[in-house]
Amino acid sequence: MPAEVLWFRRFLPITAPRVRLFCFAHAGGAASAFRSWPKGLSPDVEMLAVRYPGRQDRLGEAGAERMGDLVEPIVAALEPFRTEPIALFGHSMGAAVAYEVAVRLEQLGTPAAVLFVSGYPAPLHHDVRAFAPQDDSTMLAEIRSIGGPQLADLDPALLELMLPALRADWKVLTTYRPTRGRPLSTPVVAYAAAEDTLAPIDRVVDWAEVTTAMFAHRTFRGGHFYLVDQEAELTSDITRHLSSTGRATRR
């Protein structure tokens, strides 16, 4: 299977898109978290959701346990798309993955057009102690405490299927050390939620320090998973920021 098929899922293929938006889910999340997003985006923006190993149609694979085990194959899988503008969106853990992918793209000389980060503190505030190794019950309790989607209502058998991916993602976060140093030339847009205890607003706005280009931020009402209830508002804002991307360079 080609790497771009293995790692990315298209919910609505578009012929000759102006820009492609690659979306990275939260810890324990999967590509399906973004299945309804295309309807909220401009018709010339193609969305591709990242397919993490160890869940859904990659359930038979072991989950990645180090950030590099996600970033490097994703960057390699992006190779066929690097002739056109690429935008990146990540929520929670996905924001950290998207940021590291943006760093690698910059190093390769093909910076992302825009990096959207949501519900995750800026690298300046990364605290590995927040993701200390835990047993399953403690880990699940913490995820539920921030509104983890539907965990409380899951059938025990389905929850058991999800646990290996959650454990792997937790190890990614436990061992992760953000890349610091030379700022990106990629514009960055940061999203926070007013009641998000995992990513307080004052720690999200400091994403400004990772770029020398345009920085913008917006706060939504709600908690950590604000984007579930406010999908339309969020995709509308993303569309606004992407409105001029690719117009000067489209082939």
Report on the architecture of this protein.
There is one protein chain. It is globular, with a radius of gyration of 17 Å. The chain is α/β, with parallel strands linked by helices. It is built from 8 helices and 7 strands, in the order αβββαβαβααβαβαα. It has helices at 3-7, 67-77, 93-107, 136-145, 156-175, 201-204, 226-229, 231-242; strands at residues 8-10, 19-24, 45-50, 86-91, 114-118, 188-193, 215-220. A 7-stranded mixed beta sheet has the order 1-3-2-4-5-6-7. Helix content is 32%, strand content 15%. Helix 3 (93-107) links the parallel strand 4 (86-91) and strand 5.
Q: Which SSEs are present, and which pair or pack?
A:
Layout: H1 3-7, E1 8-10, E2 19-24, E3 45-50, H2 67-77, E4 86-91, H3 93-107, E5 114-118, H4 136-145, H5 156-175, E6 188-193, H6 201-204, E7 215-220, H7 226-229, H8 231-242
Parallel strand pairs: 2-3, 2-4, 4-5, 5-6, 6-7
Antiparallel strand pairs: 1-3
Helix pairs in contact: 2-3
